Amino acid sequence: MSGTFKVAIIGSGPAGLSAAARAAALGLSHVLLEKTDHLSDTIYKYQKGKHVMATPSNLVLRSDVDFEAGKRETILGVWDEQIEGHNVNVKYHAEAKAIRGTGDAIPGSVQQIVMRARDGTRTVKEIQRHAPPYAIELTNGETVMAENVILAIGTQGNPNRMRCPGADLPHVQYQLDDPAEYVDEHIIIVGTGDAGIENARGLAEDPAQRNTVSILNRGTEFPTAKDANVKALMADHEAGKLMIRTESETKSIEPGFITLTTRDGELRIPCDRIIARIGSAPPRMFVEECGIEFSSEDRTAFPKLSPVFESTAPGIFVIGALAGYPLIKHCMNQGHDVIEFINGNTELKPADEPIIVEKFKDLPGSRSTDEWLEFLRTNVSILNGMNPLQMREFMLDSTARHFRPGEVIFERNAPGSSLFGIASGSVAVEVNPADPSITIPIEAGSIFGEVGLISGRRRGATIRAAEDTIVVEISRLAALKLQSQVPAAKKAIERISIERQLLQMFGSGLTREDVAPLVDSAKVEEKRAGEIVVTEGADDKDVFIVRRGSMIVEKAIGTRPVFLSYLPAGSYFGEMAVIDGSSRTATVKTAIKSEVIRLPGEGFLELLERNPALRERALKDMAGRRATTTFIESRKDEFSGAVDLYSETAQFLVDNGIGEATDVLLIDEKLCIGCDNCEKACADSHDGLSRLDREAGRTYAHLHVPTSCRHCEHPHCMADCPPNAIKRGPDGEVFIDETCIGCGNCQRNCPYGVIRMDAKPPKKPSLLEWMLFGSGPGPGEAPYGWRKKEAEKEATPKAKLAIKCDMCSGIDGGPACVRACPTGAAIRVAPDKFLTFTKLAEDAE
């Protein structure tokens, strides 16, 4: 192919097609290089019949080729026809293997020259004269010359691979072409992005295929998937077409089976095929050889780009998924715009400009959209790893806000799970509710609100602007998406949360500078349910903080393990062996799937040596734990039977969800007389609908765990509530407010069956209405029973709402179930107060 093209476009996906069509429309000499024999290979490889979405719906399409939501086959047909109609110069079987610069270095990039052109100091002709020629070497030996190169190659050719034993077996695949090919198979989908969800739904769509389909989700939410896909997946799960396995990961693969690590432990299930859709990474080696720099060393990082898509190699532009902007409509707009920029259009604004302008309209100052985006990106630490294109997409789901000195950003106990990044100014955290003058500053560049993001709890403190302050408020889903797509953001949030947890836990006048060395060396580790973190008798010397989940502590007495205590999130352990150099005195293992922060023992000791008050506290905690151990060993023969019963009872409670509870209802069956006053009192306090089932649930010895909410530390029910109707109260209670839409997601996500969908009961008629018209319950008929029957008789499915225990929040006297128990059989306790050997010790004294 002779001559030098004005622009060569590598890759014919949506971004490349749109760029080529625009070049043809403007009459620019161009070539579209495609390595296969067809256009848009990524969409070509979508599963047959796949419905392709056109999101965001509020974004206009700016392209010379059409695109609207529809079937894969229809869209490809339209594109083939229109590319031919536009006389786009396509070269098939043209795979680029290298891009070599052949011209002299230019005095500035296209971005710099375009900015000068906007100032009137350069002309469009000068921009064109200073474009360097590039030689694109193809695998077939040909060379294509071009003044500008557009990389639109995407990332799908470089999929992330599974990393577990058995991942190289032949039934593990990374692509699904035609769901109809698979019949009567147990199929596991790994990955809950759009591709994974669509594959799972496609395989489960036709019941005649008799496939058993499960999709694995490491967490409980779907931050990288489109909302419509998530809702459709949930509907299929509810209809029994497929199974969503939350908090589940692959441990190992073998022919015919897969072993999962779940919240409750390991699970081995039949598996004939695994389809892994766990994302992809940029083809870094090829891109870097072109002279393009990346935003970080992380494998999943994206190239550094200017607002006009130019990379660090002058004249080479990057658009589409390789730029970190994978939605089809965005890609097509980029393809159109990059050609306009190359052609000298210095006035063109991106298609999403009106949307983002609206985000900044209330901020002080006269910055342009690009300047505001760069201001936030450079000044908020967790956003530093994003490129300008990613920043634009990020702002579509975020809000920029300005606060004046003293203005409240949020109040203690207010609901909220968003994250805030401080771009300028600072905020003051009111740490003492009784004295608002006692505050801790958080400076520009940092974040706050991470506790609500991580735990879903209400705000732990009132935060005010200490001066004129600009923040970016990031919704929970946007924050989760940010962490999944920008490794640097995840690391920054993790570091700040560790630092603040250390300061909150240890206190004693510690400062950020005091804990900085320990934070730098800390590691966050995931632990599967039942995994041993510390082994009795071992000589390791690290200290651990329970970041999420809970632990149980056991000590071997003779040949049997004795349950010592329960450690909820926020506890620390392991310091005894570090302080006195002894071996581990007990075994600590996870009660449920958990996260721990591992602190090097040497660093922890150095912190104690520098802070006497902290050392004194640690020694006091250690003395208490040693006293418990000494007590067990000295009295083990005296009440060995009680030790065995206590240990078995504690293990039973952990196995039944106490390990992640913050408040649990227990019934002592030695005292319970079966009067059902607890249920009746609950119903009378809650519109006639009882939140507990006394008879349901499991029993061990004399302890019964009825079906009632445990108010989990990290509630499963909160994971996917569309209206955000599930909140935490100031006392830790998890409740559902009046914004519930009755979708049933919380009921499906609760592993303990304590949430049900019930019709909203009618108002109880008055006594006079009963006497005159026979309305309402008669004498001797329980009001709550009548209201429930009427609700079930009259209500439609749409009128149903989620019902669960709210610990009688707002009712004087506390939980009605406990107050109404005539024998004291019903108690509500926090597991760390109940699951401890000191209770047994007290009973023995």
UniProtKB/TrEMBL annotation:
Domain 4Fe-4S ferredoxin-type: 663-695, 700-731, 732-760, 799-832
Domain Cyclic nucleotide-binding: 382-476, 506-625
Pfam families: cNMP_binding, Fer4_11, Pyr_redox_2
GO MF terms, alphabetically ordered: 4 iron, 4 sulfur cluster binding; metal ion binding; oxidoreductase activity
This protein's record includes keyword Iron: yes
Entries under InterPro entries matching the protein: 4Fe4S_Fe-S-bd, 4Fe4S_Fe_S_CS, cNMP-bd_CS, cNMP-bd_dom, cNMP-bd_dom_sf, FAD/NAD-bd_sf, FAD/NAD-binding_dom, RmlC-like_jellyroll
Keywords (A to Z) from UniProt: 4Fe-4S, Electron transport, Iron, Iron-sulfur, Metal-binding, Transport
CDD domains to which the protein is assigned, alphabetical: CAP_ED, DMSOR_beta_like
Keyword Acyltransferase listed: no
Cited PANTHER family: DIMETHYLSULFOXIDE REDUCTASE CHAIN B, OXIDOREDUCTASE
Protein name: Fe-S-cluster-containing dehydrogenase component
